[in-house]
Amino acid sequence: MDTLDNLQAETLATIASAPDSAALEEVRVAVLGKKGKITALMGDMRSLTPDERKARGAALNAVKTAVEAAIETRRADLKKAELEQRLAAERIDVSLPVRPEAQGRIHPISQTVDEIVAIFGAMGFTVAEGPDIETDFHNFTALNIPPEHPARQMHDTFYLPPAADGAARVLRTHTSPVQIRTMLNQKPPIRIIAPGRTYRSDYDQTHTPVFHQVEALVIGEDIHMGHLKGTLLEFCRAFFQIDDLPVRFRPSFFPFTEPSAEIDIGCERMAMLKYGIPDLRSFFDADLRWLRHYGFVPLDQPNLAQGLTR
């Protein structure tokens, strides 16, 4: 037993003084490994009587348990010390000036939204917002989209678990629910735009599951189709900075507007067309090289007085 007591005392002392994780692992292997001291002592019990073997086994297990506990405690202490040392070595002085090569860039989507807000803001519009997670009522029913409409199908829409009251919920498929919420909460006259993220189950060169829309809503006396056409025409010319921009209006069907029309300007994707970006998916790749090429200087805030993009 004296041999076991000495072994335990020596091993615990070596564990406590292990300078790092590698040294600690060497101690573990030397004592508990396949060729370790305790393993060897367990193999020597074959020549003992059953009673002696029982007593010897219990003593060896006690030493093994004490050694394993000491190793785990020391390992935790070493990891904590190593982490503190690493944090101290990697400390950053936030008072130092930024490195020129680390200058950030405004994402083209953010820049495009800011440009759109600047143009409509100059026309007297205000920005309205709504939740990304919408109710079925605001996203479909209130817009006269019937239950059998293809837009409600699972392959197009991201459905979420029902709300606490049982109401169906979706990731909004357009920003039109903002119009519904505005009309329910605000009396006319109304002149708002609703920019924001929308979600549909689609992914290719010109479609992504997350994309951005902007809608405008005007409610007032003597408002007619000519106002809509004139507003969109002036917006497109201001956004693309082309006075004679070719624009085509054509009749179309939307279940929540009458009369309805679509406007063609050569490409449905405004930021891609204006900035020459060929693949919509690259907007979401988080590639810093792409952002340095297509991004904008943070202080380059768009406005109509000085120009949208300088």
Question: What does it look like?
Answer:
This protein is of the alpha+beta class and 310 residues long. It folds into two domains: 2-89; 108-294, 2-Layer Sandwich (BirA Bifunctional Protein, domain 2). 43% of the residues lie in helices and 12% in strands. The protein has a three-stranded mixed sheet, with helices on both faces. The mean pLDDT is 84.
CATH homologous superfamily of the largest domain?
A: Bira Bifunctional Protein, Domain 2
Give the percentage of residues in beta strands: 5-15%
For the largest beta-sheet, the strand count, sense and barrel status come to: 3 strands, mixed
Q: How many strand units?
A: 8
Q: Structural class given helices, strands, pairing?
A: alpha+beta
Short description:
43% of the residues lie in helices and 12% in strands. With 310 residues, the protein is an alpha+beta fold.
Essential attributes:
three-stranded mixed β-sheet, 8 strands, BirA Bifunctional Protein, domain 2, 310 residues, 2 domains, alpha+beta, elongated, single chain, three-stranded antiparallel β-sheet
Secondary-structure blueprint of this entry?
Layout: H1 2-16, H2 21-32, H3 37-43, H4 50-89, H5 108-122, E1 126-127, E2 133-135, H6 136-139, E3 159-160, E4 169-171, H7 176-185, E5 190-199, E6 210-219, H8 225-240, E7 248-251, E8 261-264, H9 270-275, H10 288-294
Parallel strand pairs: 1-5
Antiparallel strand pairs: 2-4, 3-4, 5-6, 7-8
Helix pairs in contact: 1-4, 2-4
